[in-house]
Amino acid sequence: MLQLRTAEADKANLQAEKDANDAKVKELTAQVEKLTKQAAADQTTAKKQIEDLNGKVAAQEQLIGKFKEALEKWKDGYAKAAALATAKEAERVKLTDQNAVLRRKVEDQRAKNVALAKTANEILDRYAKFGVGEALSAREPFTGITRARIETLVQDYGDKIEDNRIKPEPAPTKKKP
């Protein structure tokens, strides 16, 4: 009987051990299932986050592409504006030089105009003082002194007028590019 008791005690111990092991297996199985579910949920969440981040990266790359395109357009526009500004500045300098040349010509022509007016006034004054006696002596047949003096005056006045005359400039020739 002792053996029977020992066997029954061993059996009870083994049964208790088995029950404890079964409980432990159940607990570990539940933990494995829980961790498997958690891992699946984490994997799903990670996949969703990866998809979201990939979408954000694609959107950022698209935005960067648009910015690069806008930057290139801006650079082109700036280059065109700079070229236009350079051309306009060169044209402005050219026109300023032309303006200075034309101003000098106008001043020169005004001075010549004043000299011509002075010569014309001298002629008018001499003509106003020219009397009948002087006219008869100018036609004097024997000496011709008065006539020579008048011809000299006419020649001098003609020279003064010609010196102060504004001469037309030749038409500028257009250069072909």
Summary tags:
177 residues, mainly alpha, 88% helix, rod-shaped
Structural notes for this entry:
The chain has helices spanning 2-129, 132-138, 145-164. The model has no long low-confidence stretch (mean pLDDT 85). Helix 1 (2-129) runs antiparallel to helix 3 (145-164). The protein contains three helices and no strands. It has 177 residues and is mostly helical.
What oligomerization state is this entry in?
A: single chain
Show unreliable segments. Answer: none
The first-to-last residue Cα distance is 132 Å
Written as H for each helix and E for each strand, in order along the chain, the element string is HHH
* Share in helix: over 70%
Strand segment count? 0
**Tell me about the biggest sheet?**
none
Secondary structure tally, helices: 3
* Mean pLDDT rating: 85
Per the principal axes of the C-alpha atoms, what is the gross shape?
A: rod-shaped
The proportion of residues in beta strands is under 5%
Structural class: mainly alpha
